[in-house]
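User: structure tokens for this one?
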Amino acid sequence: MQGSRWSIPFRSRTLCSIRTASLWFRIGRCMTVCPLLWALSSSGLLAQNPQDQVPAFSEPKFRDKVWEAGGPMFRDTKSGKLILSVTIQGEKTISEHSILSKMQSRPDRLYDSDTLNRDINELYRTNWFDRIETRFMDLPEGVHIKLIVHEKPIVSSVVFHGNKRLDEGKLQKHAGIEKGDAHSPQAVLQAKQRLIDLYRDEGMNSADIQVYQGAKIGETDVIFRISEGEVERLWSIEFVGNNAFSTSLLKARIRSKDAMHGVRGYISNIADLDKLAHDREILESYYRSLGYFDARVDYSYRYDDTGKWMFVTFVINEGEQYTVNEITIRGNKYYSAEQLTKGFKLYSGMPFNQGKMAHDARLLRDIYGATGFYFCDIGPVPVYLPDHKVNLIYEIEEGDIYRVSDIRVHIDGQNSYTKHTVPMNLLGRIRPNRILDSREVDAALTRIKYSEIFNKDPSQGELPQIVVQPYGDEFEDEPLP
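Assistant:
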């Protein structure tokens, strides 16, 4: 499969945007000079008396030039000499062979300070050492290198006690700490939290995990003591206070599933407290998307006598549903408000509906995009009123109308035999000198992705894309990315 990137430069029907950009740049340059002149004047460097004035710029001294260039350069007397030996001192648990295997500075090679610095950085990246000191013995026949290392404590073992339902392999994988890793109390506590999250995902919300050993400096044997508890499942999910929407509808919106009072038994009804908290947010968002902006949702749960089954109740305070008071279009010059709102689904006096508002915003973008306003910016802004009403204001920044100037096709991939005419045929009605229609660009990109010619898997490389760039002097001589 091959990845592709398409670029469609375009030219405006007017030159307003180009002139504005050029004018803004010049203003910016002038404004950066003014504070500098004011600073020189206030500091006394610009004398008030013409006889006392000094030149604004003078030739810098040689010393100043040297320090501006980074300071005097000192030649390393060891560079180019033969490395006679590389020795390690201070290692305890990490073998000398393991350390030397990370280094490119080795005996019988020429010494280079940059190479040695890279070697030391590589050793720090292993997370084995707190500090590394370098010592040299410079002789006429060569140089001896000694590294004095100060090791971090290393985890000697990781042990789990009390786990019955989850095997050690799974616990070891999720803990993220194993024998041979650098030891730190913080890393052990993070491993504990990851294990707690794992047990909660498996429905054991009452699981308790304690770090018996390893949470203190010097305790390199890490021991976790685990009390798993019961696997908890949802027996039922109830709703209280829902008048506008039925229980079955709200159940279909959330992610948690119950046992339907025993009908479903043990299928997909693990009790996940994090999922319940997310379900509460889902319900609140659902109510607010339909105009219940004051809606509040909370939940409670209890267990049966065995501690295995959970009963969940969502408590809902719906509040009043907001209605649309008036709809206002701002910033429109090319089209009248009547033309823009002709196909709206949300009108004054209707209950607020976020889906319909999003539809109307897309409709405005399509209207402007069809006539070349490719960079038209439209943002619906709801304004809440105290009497459970809301005003909708559509702020529009039309921009300029654009035509397609030229189309450049860039195809990546090994052994690419695809002709440029192939993707050009998928562009549809996008051609040079035609009005740039944003709907056609979206449709062309869809055809390209589903053509089975180019890459569709993000893990295999870059996905096809269409890049639209304003046509101007700053883009003419630069290769497209």
